[in-house]
Specification:
The structure holds two protein chains of two kinds. Chain A is mainly β. Chain A is 12% helix and 30% strand. The longest helix of chain A has 9 residues. Chain A starts with 11 loop residues before the first strand and ends in a 12-residue tail after the last strand. Chain B has a domain of 213 residues: P-loop containing nucleotide triphosphate hydrolases (Rossmann fold).
Chain lengths: 112, 624
């Protein structure tokens, strides 16, 4: 398993906030990320297990391949060898260490 | 023990969705398959038989695909309970074949670690091994087998001898006469899932050598099909093509079926003396069942496309593209296919909801499925439109009749979304369910398996027509025929039957929406299937003749007798009215309670009455 990400300055962010082209490594699943207070009930044990079962496990390599038309939601994510469609809301329960922010925007910003 | 040895070996196929499990099942059993439902639930149960090289009789069942045994949807509960031996009326299998996609082993291996401890001997089949080899993936099956402690074979479901290794291993395992242990399964915690992931990861690290060549084709195709703009345009084009095919390709076959049933009815009338028996057989059974079976070509064409696109891998993409649209009313990308099917007929649509994991989500989809304009409404719509809407163009290029037809379809879709919104926001409040769905790699569909799937759907539909729908038709015939007309009566016989009595009694209630007693009577046999109302109207108005001539005569008759307001009100009524006893019966079976069909009947009836009332009164004020 190649989980090590060497850059010291690489940032950790919620997968649901990423833009198309984002690449990174999953660092935690099922944690309530900062900045989405009020959504706490979405990050329950059931969601955590579903995410794990479909391959979002710590150490997995992820890449955002596609975004939906309306509100750029849902997103299609490559998780190791599997492609998964997921809403941004649920993808926010996945924290990734970013190795490449996006295709278009090197700053890694995106509207959500 | 001797009892176990005496009967044939029972194997069950389990695996992730999209692992090629059904293709492998088809390869093993060929056309020797039985499709039924598990008792009490409407999860499809596929069983098939085959003989191993050693001459052993094997009964195989194809369990619904799953990522784990937690049983989130009715499908997944069946898989879990069948494996644990808790499924009523189902013998616990002697051997479990866990089918894995050799090109994507991670999730399958994780499932293997969960299934391994369930008490049933297990065999891992690395399926689609040819594609894995083509992509340069090298798997050390022997090493993997040693490490996990279960037999591992490679399979290619689509080639002739691709299952040879599997069959041989089944023989070897059967000869060992391993006994099935009591189930020791407990629900996995998140930590258990993580642990099994790590175990799978280590196996892959040690025994799988992947080259860098990933599935480039899937990626390239997705760049077009999932493009935010092009993807939606293509989806709409695909839907348009399907609709075009369903309605134009099916027409000659539907005419043929109609002619066939008409001929049988004529034969019965001419060979039996006139009387109740002749009427029951010709008008009740043959005409009634014929009225439903006539939709078979449309259903088969629709399912041909759905299964084709499903096997290709496109349906998951359609769900992805549509998720935001139907998610806005609290539904889910997965509701898309059931709702699409409902345009042919709500019955297959409602049956297709079983892939939806969440019960509320599934109920909401079931409740709105009959609002999609099914093809049984079309004869009613075309009759009224042809009689009342002038055949001229609007703005030079849009046909007015076509525009009205389009408006009726749109009214169905919009009201379905509104009803779903009400259900999801007022009846079942609470957070929306997560949408998490694998996008499988694209695969070339196999003609044989697509055709087999279509034939199975057709069979299921025909079986329903032969049982529940037949019973309903006999009841409706009874209401429309008994008691017979008195001696020397003028007017059609239906006028004196129970349907006539009920129709006359209902007429005062239906007067505010502009329905006369003839319509009121026709609505009762019309409960059998919506388009039966057309035939019933012909009976009430005593229009003689068969086929198109009768329809034209009927159109002329109602064109002379109804006001435009009445005609429009009847169209509005048909957008909403639960004029289909078969749908209600299927809802009862799907939800295993009378509550939901009753709720459906009441809400649709209320909407129909309100809509027809508004249309009738408005049209009258405007001078219609």
């Amino acid at each position: 398993m190649s989980t090590e990400v060497h850059q010291a300055d690489s940032e950790v962010q919620a997968l649901g906030r990423g833009a198309k082209g984002l690449r990174g490594t999953v660092v935690s699943v099922g944690q309530n990320p900062a900045g989405s207070a009020g959504d706490a009930d979405a990050f329950d044990d059931e969601l955590e297990r579903r995410l794990l079962e479909i391959g979002f496990v710590e150490g997995a390599q992820v890449e955002i391949l596609h975004e939906g038309f309306w509100g750029r939601d849902p997103i299609a994510v490559k998780v190791d060898d599997t492609s998964v469609a997921i809403r941004r809301r649920e993808a926010n329960a996945i924290l990734v260490r970013v190795s490449k922010a996006s295709d278009a925007d090197p700053q890694g910003g995106s509207r959500v | 023990m001797s009892e176990v040895m005496a009967r044939e070996l029972r194997v069950a196929l389990a695996g992730n969705p999209n692992c090629g499990k059904t293709a492998l099942f088809n390869a093993l059993t060929g056309s020797h398959q039985k499709v039924a439902n598990y008792p009490g639930v409407t999860v499809e149960r596929k069983e098939g038989g085959f003989t191993t090289p050693a001459g052993r009789q094997v009964v195989a069942i194809d369990l619904p695909g799953t990522y784990g045994l937690r049983g989130r949807s009715p499908d997944e509960v069946v898989t879990r309970d069948a494996i644990l031996g808790k499924l009523e009326g189902e013998i616990r299998p002697d051997l479990l074949i866990c089918v894995a996609d050799a090109t994507n082993l991670r999730l399958s291996l994780r499932l293997v670690f969960e299934l391994k401890n369930c008490g049933i001997p297990i065999l891992l089949a690395l399926n689609m091994y040819d594609i894995a080899e083509y992509r340069g993936i090298k798997i050390d099956a022997e090493g993997m087998s040693r490490e996990i402690g279960i037999p591992v074979v490679t399979t290619v479901a689509i080639s002739n001898d691709g299952t040879a290794a599997l069959l041989q291993k089944v023989d070897e395992l059967a000869a060992l006469k391993q006994t099935v242990q009591p189930a020791v399964w407990r629900e996995q915690s998140a930590e258990d899932v993580r642990a099994s992931h790590h175990a799978a990861e280590q196996i892959i690290g040690r025994f799988v050598k992947a080259s860098a060549a990933a599935d480039d084709w899937t990626r390239r195709i997705d760049n077009v099909l999932l493009h935010p703009v092009a993807g939606i345009v293509i989806l709409l084009a695909v839907l348009f093509l399907i609709f075009q095919a369903v309605f134009s390709w099916a027409a000659p076959f539907m005419d043929l079926i109609k002619a066939g049933f008409d001929a049988i009815a004529v034969l019965i009338r001419s060979s039996l003396p006139e009387g109740m028996l002749s009427s029951l057989l010709a008008d009740g059974i043959v005409a009634g069942v014929g009225a439903v079976v006539v939709f078979l070509p449309q259903i088969m064409i629709l399912f041909f496309f759905i299964i084709l696109l499903e096997d290709f891998g496109y349906m998951a993409r359609a769900a992805f593209l549509m998720d935001r649209v139907i998610g806005g009313v609290g539904l889910h990308g997965r509701s898309f296919i059931p709702l699409l099917s409902s345009f042919a007929c709500a019955i297959p649509g409602i049956m297709a909801t079983r892939v939806i994991e969440n019960r509320r989500q599934r109920l909401a989809t079931i409740m709105i499925a009959p609002l999609m304009t099914c093809s049984a409404r079309i004869p009613v719509y075309t009759l009224i439109i042809a009689a009342f809407v002038p055949d001229r163009s609007v703005g030079g290029f849009i046909n007015l009749q076509g525009l009205v037809m389009f408006g009726l379809y749109a009214a169905g879709i919009i009201s379905a979304f509104a009803v779903a919104f009400v259900f999801r926001h007022f009846v079942w409040k609470g957070k929306s369910e997560p949408f998490i769905m694998e996008l499988p790699g694209y695969k070339r569909p196999r003609v044989q398996s697509v055709l087999m799937g279509v034939l199975q759907r057709a069979f299921v539909f025909l079986r329903r027509a032969g049982t529940i729908i037949l019973a309903m038709m006999i009841l409706i015939w009874f209401l429309s025929t008994v008691p017979g007309a008195p001696e020397g009566a003028s007017g059609p016989a239906i006028n004196y039957s129970f349907a006539g009595i009920i129709g006359h009694a209902l007429q005062p209630i239906l007067a505010p929406i502009g329905f006369n007693w003839q319509i009121a009577i026709a609505l009762i046999p019309g409960l059998a299937a919506r388009e039966v109302a057309v035939g019933a109207l012909a009976t009430v108005y005593a229009v003689a003749g068969q086929g198109d001539a009768a329809r034209e005569a009927l159109g002329a008759t109602i064109g002379g007798q109804w006001s435009l307001a009445t005609a429009l009100a009847l169209l509005a009524w048909y957008v909403f009215a639960p004029q289909c006893a078969s749908t209600l019966a299927v809802v009862k079976r799907e939800t295993a309670s009378w509550k939901w069909p009753v709720v459906m009947f009441i809400y649709m009836m209320a909407l129909a009455y309100i809509a027809a009332f508004i249309v009738f009164q408005t049209a009258r004020v405007m001078g219609g």
